[in-house]
Amino acid sequence: MRVHVHPLPLLLASSCSLLLVGCSKISHHATAPPAPTLYSLTVSSTGPATGVAVAVTPLDASNTPGGTVPFTRRYAAGSAITLTSPPSSAIGKFGSWTGCTSATGNICVVTLSANATVTANYTPVLVAILPNRAAATIGQTLQLTVTVDGSTSQAVIWSLAAPKGWTGGLGSVTNATSKDPHNGLYTTPYPAPANVVVTATSVAYPGAAASREIALTAPSAARGPELSVDAGNPTHAISALIYGMNFYSLNPLAEVASGMTIDRFGGDGASRYNYLLDVTNSASDWFFENTKAGTGLQETGQLNTQFLADRAAGVKTIATVNVLGWVAKDSTACSFPISAYPSQHSQDPYGQVRHCGDGETPDKNNITGNDATDTSIAVGPSFAGDWTAYLVGKFGNAASGGVAMYSLDNEPAWWDAVHRDVHPVASTYDEVTENGIATAEAIKTADPTAAVTGPVVDNWWNYFYSKKDMESGWKSGPCHKPWSNPVDRDAHHGVAFVEWYLQQMKAAESTFGERVLDYLDLHTYYAGSYNGNPVGLAAAGDTGAQQMRLNSTRAFWDPTYTDPEAPQPNYSTDTNFTANCSVPLQAPQLIPMMKTWITNNYPGTRTAITEYNWGGQENINGAVAQADLLGIFGREALDLATLWGPPDPVKQMPGLMAFEAFRNYDGAGSKFGDVALYSTSAKQAELSIYGARRTSDRAITVIVLNKTYGDLSSTIVLKNLTAANAAKTFLYSNADLAAIVAQPDVTLTHPGAERTVGRLEATFPAQSITIFVIPDK
Predict the structure, then answer these.
(1) Closest CA to 90 of 53, 117, 118
(2) How far is the C-alpha of 625 from the C-alpha of 630, rounded, in Å?
(3) Spatial distance between the Cα atoms of 396 and 253, rounded to a whole number of angstroms
(4) What is the pLDDT of residues 614-642, one digit of tens each?
(5) Residue 12 CB: number of other CB atoms within 10 A?
């Protein structure tokens, strides 16, 4: 049988071969495969519901990575996605995943076959503070305990918030111990609001916190210690020169109002002051830059301007003269210009014209080898003598109202630090003493009526050792203490530095023919430290800092008070010498110690403290502390004192008012007495009392300081009075920080028929200064 084959398939095949282009066109318009199916993956969380950052791999169809929940990503069907959540959120710790195909710890794997939602579940951490109902008495502390549930770390950060409208202090919360960081000790402020809110925030979970309101209440009014003043027992004259400051001529109105008596031109800049050009060098205080001190002109220079303002206010002036050996040569140079020393730790951020560095390498080592003559001129004792002669020619000698005193430079223990650009070597016994003697003689030659003060040392160890000794000791084992290798003191027969200085000044008097040193001059920064921070030159702080401020005024006199910064000197011949590296503390008794040195080495020398500062001048606490210091200076018969950092009459009115309490308590120039009277307090830490007779009218003046945070009532027993019946009264307290306010007269009572004993009953407000003025004949 014959099979017939249809010719069409062949034709078609031939046509496609012949019409290749056409075939190609037919193939191009074929139907495209369907797009893959995309599913949504939604990522969420609980505890918290937002804010958790989750990592996602791979990128989704839009090349988008993970994100912060809640968020959604789209993937092809069948995609395997891995999600990683953080082990903790801001408020809790990770617990589990839900919605995953599989999960291991905080890692979730999802294989998408439909839209899906996965959730990272966190267990919120609960922060709680005890006690639930908290109250604190001002001046005391309150223990707070916090728990952070579900946390491996109980550590918290404490913060405080003020009630609406309160702008004062809030106190502080510190960890009770380093091993117990979740327990806080709250210390109150003063003055204080009615309440504060304390918040504990978890360190591990910074979104987890708790707050507690603490009510603040004043201590109950109480009976204070009995006080007494004996008008028949004068002890000594009170020097008017204890009411001094540094540089208060910069505010003439406040200088007059304060009633200050002497004004010192001093500090680091005074060491390098060149009176001929009225220029100085800021030394390490500010990038070792030369600068104008005042106008840059000799006749209207800084010291001259200060003297004229002082004289107009009836205030004496102390000028600081150079013993260091270098003064500034112009107003433009600096010791470590960036051009010469390009790689320095820091440079003057305001030096648009001069580019001056701090003289340190980037790793904070001192740059050495600079040329001192780049900024300064070498001078000797004659420079101070010539300056004195110039001042005498311009203003007269000291006896006729010219510059009253000259201090022999400033803090030689730090010449090799503060002034290391010109004096890189530690000061020694001989340098400070011999140059001091020569400078004093030059001053006395130019003005025999002027007084000279020295050695103006500021460091506890420099009272007993030279800076050379101190640095030698720091480098010497096993103790590495200032006394460890006293090579300079050993070379001077083992005599303590200040005593050696006095001995040599006495010897110089015999050869010069008159006294060359009038005042033993120290700087005494012995305000205590609280929580590791000095309270001197600082704001008032909480009541813990305030109590330290008031307690540490005892450094000037109290044989039972010790200071960790003032251990025993520990020279080998000391009766209490120990080879132990930890030496015991000793009571500084700064004023009695100065007097003992003088008695033993140069009798007739007077005592001066030309820098001190107990801080808190913006607060009533600083005013009470400053008044306590002035009372102590008078009672202990200090001869001269000048406060460093005079109070700003706008921002630090309380510090100014402490002076006015003694020098201008009624705003009309009335003053505290000038003859000290024997006065006692049964508890000086609560109520301090200072009594004095005013020679001009024989009135008895009494100042009482309440150092506590509650009102105290007490009786002042006034002995050996005439028949006085009332006391005028003035008060300075937190109730009015702008003024000392006159109060109603207080009546004196007299027991029995004895009219020479008076009893004065009064209430002394918390943290206050009360002044009584009692007529007497």
Answers:
(1) 53
(2) 9
(3) 25
(4) 999 999 999 999 999 999 999 999 999 99
(5) 10
